[in-house]
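Postdoc handover notes: sequence design on the structure in folder B. Input tokens:
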């Protein structure tokens, strides 16, 4: 059986020669921008990002209304899509989970979620 390639294919940060180095560089980059991530999204998109989250979440209305609904927002960043889905779900028992490989982004999402905690 062939050994899996450790070569990095596609775009990679300068100096990153293997998968672990690429992962580390990307995680470090997102960690460094986490405190300003939401502001940058709002400013650079002229607040269109907020509209996009609402419209994207609305597309999930039928799924969210199901009693067995379960959604994983992978690479959720600071949780905007996760929160938009939760708002769209209303009182539905839908399980919505956000996950990200950058701890600093998840910390921002947790801080943003505190006003919603019951």
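Designed sequence:
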């Amino acid at each position: 059986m062939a050994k899996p390639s450790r070569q990095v294919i596609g775009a990679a940060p300068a100096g990153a020669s293997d998968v672990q180095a690429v992962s580390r560089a990307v995680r470090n980059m997102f960690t460094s921008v986490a405190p300003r991530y939401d502001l940058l999204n709002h400013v650079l998109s002229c607040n269109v990002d907020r509209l996009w989250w609402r419209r994207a979440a609305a597309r999930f209305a039928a799924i969210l209304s199901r009693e067995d609904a379960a959604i994983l927002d992978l690479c959720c960043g600071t949780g905007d899509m996760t929160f938009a889905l939760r708002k769209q779900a209303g009182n539905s028992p839908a399980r919505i989970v956000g996950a990200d490989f950058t701890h600093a982004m998840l910390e921002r999402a947790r801080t943003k979620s505190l006003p919603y905690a019951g």
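Context for whoever picks this up: The chain has a mean pLDDT of 88. Don't rerun without checking with the PI first.
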